[in-house]
Amino acid sequence: MPVLAPGVVQIAASKSDNVFLIAGGDGLTLVDTGRGTAVDALLQTIAELGHDPAGLRRIVLTHAHPDHVRGAPALREHTGAAILVHAADEAWLGAGRVPTDGRSGAGARRFDDLDAAHWTPFRPDVTLEDGALIAGSGGLRVIHTPGHSPGHIALLHEPTRTLLVGDALFHTGKLGYGPATYAADPAARPVAAARLPTDVAAVGFGHGAPLIGADVAAFQAFVAARR
Ligand SMILES: [Zn+2]
Ligand SMILES: [Zn+2]
Questions:
Q1: Do the beta carbons of residue 216 and residue 202 sit within 8 Å?
Q2: pLDDT class for 7, splitting at 50, 70, 90?
Q3: How far is the CA of 67 from the centre of ligand 2 (A)?
Q4: Residue ranges per structural domain of the chain
Q5: Centroid of ligand 2 to alpha carbon of 68 (angstroms)
Q6: For the chain, first and last CA: distance in Å?
Q7: Are 204 and 159 in contact (CB under 8 A)?
């Protein structure tokens, strides 16, 4: 399990989805939850990392896509953690699926009709806005990065300058925006990428390997080219 910085660990929720556990503040914060097929394994991993899963205080969702939110209701039930999401993606959580107009491509719309793309409808405990510092998280700052979804956010762990970009950028093979079909507004993605801070020490992705130390230069060059 890659350690991005002291207190910031990447956990594989499946072979293709990453979540991040942050220790600090008033306890544990989880960023994203995976597709909900391995909630028990995720709780077990948190315990193996030396933490009591009951210490999970909050789950911050980078956006309301099934591979990020589907595990959230069960994790909240097991731990009592609060669920936080940007206000612009809140309605999708309650719908239990991405609505038809939430994807730009027919391929993704077909995927959204599958049972595997649906989740138990739920409501967040807190809605987030751009620039918010998440109370109790030990220093997570919200950066609104719409495009992949209307309420997509990146999160900067300010004490360690660790940036968690969710699906604003993918690092699957190469650094890029990921498949346009899955995005609500593909043309907005470069604008969102340009909002990301580049004075960072590590970058974590929802999909793909992290960039740490000198490897961050590839991310910095990508963002700089959008400014
Ligand atoms: Zn996504
Ligand atoms: Zn994703």
A1: yes
A2: very high
A3: 5
A4: 3-224
A5: 6
A6: 33
A7: no
